[in-house]
Amino acid sequence: MNMALKIKNKQKGLSLVEMMVALVISLFLSAGLFTMFSMSSSNVTTTSQFNQLQENGRIALAIMERDISQLGFMGDITGTDFVVGTNTVLEVPTSGFIDCVGAGLNNATLPNTQPAHFRRLWGYESGVGGSSLSCLAGVTVNKNTDVLQMKRFIGPNVANGNSDAIFAATNSSEVAFFVGANPVAALTNPRIWEYQHHVYYIADDAAGTPVLRRITLTNKGMNNFEQLVEGIENVRFLYGFDNDGDSTPDRYIPESQVTSLMWDNESFQRLVAIKVFVLVRSVQNDPSYTNETTYQLGDKQIQPIKDNFRRKVMSTTVVLENPVLIRS
Q1: What is residue 41's predicted lDDT score, i.e. its pLDDT?
Q2: Which end of the chain is more exposed for a tag (fewer CB within 10 A), N or C?
Q3: Considering the domain boundaries, does residue 219 fall inside one?
């Protein structure tokens, strides 16, 4: 009898109630672990995307700021209008040359014979007002994004030119644009600089990601298309004009309010600074996130897009390095 009781006690296990309690506890523990893992994964995605937004925006602003700050630098002839046949000589081969013509009488890649201001700067909002640049005729520029063109010499001056780019030999009263080692035109005590024409714009890549892009000048014209920074969805430029001659901007206005006289520096208002705003978008979407934020891009408001991409507005103010020369 005692032996049978011992065997029966050894075979005793969990009851059905105990097993159900254990399963419920395990279920709660598993749910907690899954929630913690999900939250951790979401935080990693959010942090990674915000870091990406910050870095891409910083790079885009740094590229444009460095370029814009030296706007209008034309070596020894800075501040003087270029008119072919008067103070300007063109020795650039025209065969196969891709020009980039904008609004204004003298606003192509190279100066022309018009006795008008050679525009070093000009901009417009894509898809608004009908403005355009001829070198972007075959490019699908994102609508309602700003386009900016600028022209300048790249320093320091060099001993000789070469056949890969366009150069300019200058003294205080003349300029000769040429390709090769030296110009044919005989200038007195010239210095040689590389000439550059840049056009900034935004267009999507094949995957639909917006990219800040730039066209740069080669010896064959505006035919070098560069992809600079991905994820730059919009850009806005506000132009700072000095109204009282103290070289400090009294107001910042969009391109739609900049008159032809102001572009040509022929009125009492002079351009001395430019504000640059970029709307940066994450490259990858996050299905767990819905963007319902309204963004202020300078004077322009971007309504909620309600997609799964994070965004961030970044900006900088660029003071022109030679405002007095440009003003004069």
Answers
A1: 56
A2: N
A3: yes
What is the residue whose two structure tokens read 């917006």?
Answer: 210
Cis peptide before 156 (omega within 30 of 0): yes
CA distance 226 to 224: 6
State how many domains the chain has: 1
Asked, for residue 18, whether it belongs to a domain, the answer is: no
For residue 207 the two structure tokens come to 């995957």
On whether the CB atoms of residues 226 and 196 are closer than 8 A, the answer is no
312: β partners: 280
pLDDT above 70 covers a percentage of the chain that reads: 89
| Structural domain includes residue 9 | no
- Residue ranges making up the domain that contains 107: 42-325
pTM of the model: 0.85
| 29 found inside a domain | no
Which residues of the chain are modeled with pLDDT < 70? Answer: 1-14, 18, 32-44, 322-328
